[in-house]
Write a structure and sequence with these properties.
Blueprint (H helix, E strand, L loop, with lengths): L8 E5 L4 H12 L3 E5 L7 H8 L3 E2 L13 E4 L8 H9 L3 E3 H10 L3 E6 L4 H16 L8 E8 L4 E4 L10 E6 L3 E3 L2 E4 L8 E4 L13 H12 L7 E5 L3 H7 L5 E6 L6 E9 L2 E8 L2 E8 L4 H16 L4 H9 L9 E6 L2 E6 L4 H14 L5 E5 L12 H8 L4 E5 L15 H10 L3 E5 L2 H8 L8 E5 L7 H12 L1
Parallel strand pairs: 1-2, 1-4, 2-3, 4-5, 6-9, 6-12, 7-9, 12-13, 13-14, 14-15, 19-23, 20-21, 20-23, 21-22
Antiparallel strand pairs: 7-8, 10-11, 15-16, 16-17, 18-19
Helix pairs in contact: 1-2, 5-8, 5-9, 6-7, 8-9, 10-11, 11-12, 13-14
Length: 482
């Protein structure tokens, strides 16, 4: 874009989205003056913006666009009726999307490595970026640029852009989001990324606000697969018939990973001790490596295997893969221990789908055997706020000893016939003899459960948002009580 050829004032509407905040930092590093606005800010991205010194305006207002910026980037959560978007359209300020800027300004001339799937893509992208980073210590050509949908703790950031060179086509590692791009571009963001190689983790029905059913979701992933060139590679999970269908007409080489005996990349001898996992990884039936990962859960071992498989296929040395996974430090808000006090462990997990909740609780069961496990859920994502997944949610929460649900976030935005009713979930869990309750908000939950917690309890707080500050309020209440 001509407007990007020199330093400009660029304003981002919806800047607190993970990808938007990361893009803001990338553009600032390019020498542009960045401002942004959002309805509400919460960690970790509010912290990222503060550290970058990028002004954040709340709430949305026309005044946030004064003086008039040279370019506006519109987040995909922004719809017609937003006061800033209406001002942009009325005054004809040039505007675009996050994904378009990423393609035009950062991916040209680089090797695009995309991690996609309904679940696991943030963690897998972080693992892949760290593998490349470790490999770059001895092989400079692997030095990665990346954009991740979360703060990767090994890097302390969600993005990095290295200077382009003419000598080698440098890797750019991206989390490929299947959510739509912008109000004017309803296709998935990942269709802008044109991968040279990709990972496909899982394919399930999700984002019920923009996809009508599972076949619609699968169509989006099939289109991503169709973008990979013949010379490219696709690493795909072997335990999902949906994934199998999505990759069945790929023009590139497809390598499957998982527990199946006939997969090119097979996990065997999986074992877990506390929060540490170990397994033997076979490549075409031959031992590739003995892997250790300081994270709990088979789902994280699968994520690591996918990252290892893609990296190995792109020429990354085995030793770098083994070292990187053994030193991997996870992603903020993915099984993140937020507090440990009076023998009570409080864990934050970015739950957005019943399957993600199930795998999180399974991992915690394995990591903390014999402990009483609490699940504290805020139905906040556009998927969890809908009743289409009510039965699945019951099955997932049944893995906890006690579960507590908050009221549906902004329930008025969901049609009554589509809306999740937490009391129905609670009733179904109680019918199974499980203790469950629903409360209006975070404050009510803290007041109710803090006196009930005891040493040895593990509390999983499940939300893809700020959850009314419960991450700070619950530890404070426990400290006061004790």
């Amino acid at each position: 874009m001509e407007i990007m050829q020199s330093s400009k004032h660029i304003h981002l509407i919806g800047i607190c989205g993970t990808a938007m905040a990361s893009l803001a930092g990338m553009l600032q590093a390019r020498g542009h003056r960045i401002t942004g606005s959002d309805a509400a800010a919460y960690p970790p991205m509010s912290d990222v913006l503060a550290e970058l010194g990028i002004p954040l305006h709340q709430p949305y207002a026309e005044a946030n666009l004064t003086p008039k910026p040279d370019l506006v980037i519109v987040g995909n959560a922004i719809s017609r009726g937003n006061v800033e978007l209406e001002f942009v359209l009325d005054t004809r300020i040039p505007f675009t999307s996050m994904a378009a800027v990423l393609h035009d300004e950062f991916l040209a001339g680089r090797e695009s490595l995309v991690v996609a799937g309904t679940h696991g893509k943030t963690t897998t992208t972080s693992m892949l970026a760290w593998i490349y980073e470790v490999a770059s210590r001895t092989h400079a050509e692997f030095a990665p640029s990346f954009l991740i949908g979360g703060v990767a703790e090994n890097f302390g950031t969600s993005f990095m852009v290295r200077p382009a060179t003419q000598q080698v086509r440098q890797p750019f590692i991206l989390e490929g989001d299947e959510y739509d791009t912008a109000f004017f571009d309803k296709g998935p963001k990942f269709l802008h990324y044109f991968p040279d190689a990709a990972i496909l983790t899982h394919v399930e029905f999700d984002h019920a606000d923009i996809y009508v059913d599972l076949p619609a979701v699968m169509t989006a992933f099939k289109r991503l697969v169709n973008l990979i060139p013949r010379r490219g590679r696709l690493v795909a999970f072997d335990g999902s018939q949906n994934v199998t269908q999505c990759v069945s007409h790929a023009f590139c080489a497809v390598e499957r990973y998982g527990f199946s005996a006939d997969s090119q990349w097979r996990l065997t001898n999986f074992r877990q001790q506390g929060t540490q996992s170990q397994w033997t990884l076979l490549r075409n039936g031959t031992v590739f490596a003995e892997l250790l990962l300081p994270m709990a859960g088979e789902h994280n071992a699968l994520n690591a295997t996918a990252a290892a498989a893609l990296a190995a296929g792109q020429g990354v040395p085995v030793a770098a893969i083994v070292e990187a996974l053994a030193s991997f430090r996870s992603v903020k808000r993915r099984l993140e221990v937020r507090a440990e006090l009076n023998g009570i462990t409080i864990i934050d997990d970015f739950a957005h789908h019943p399957t993600a909740i199930r795998e999180t609780l399974r991992a915690l069961r394995s990591a903390y055997p014999g402990h009483r496990l609490w699940a504290i859920l805020e139905p906040r994502s556009n998927t969890l706020r809908r009743n289409v997944f009510e039965a699945d949610l019951v099955e997932s929460l049944a893995l906890a000893d006690r579960s507590v649900l908050a009221a549906v976030f902004k329930s008025e935005a969901i049609p009554p016939n589509e809306r999740l009713h937490p009391e129905n979930v609670v009733a179904a869990l109680r019918a199974r003899g499980l203790q469950s309750a629903v409360f209006a908000d975070a404050d009510a939950i803290v007041a109710a459960i803090a006196p009930e917690l005891r040493a040895g309890d593990v509390v999983a707080i499940l939300s893809n948002g700020g959850f009314g500050g419960i991450y700070q309020k619950l530890p404070q209440a426990i400290a006061r009580l004790h």
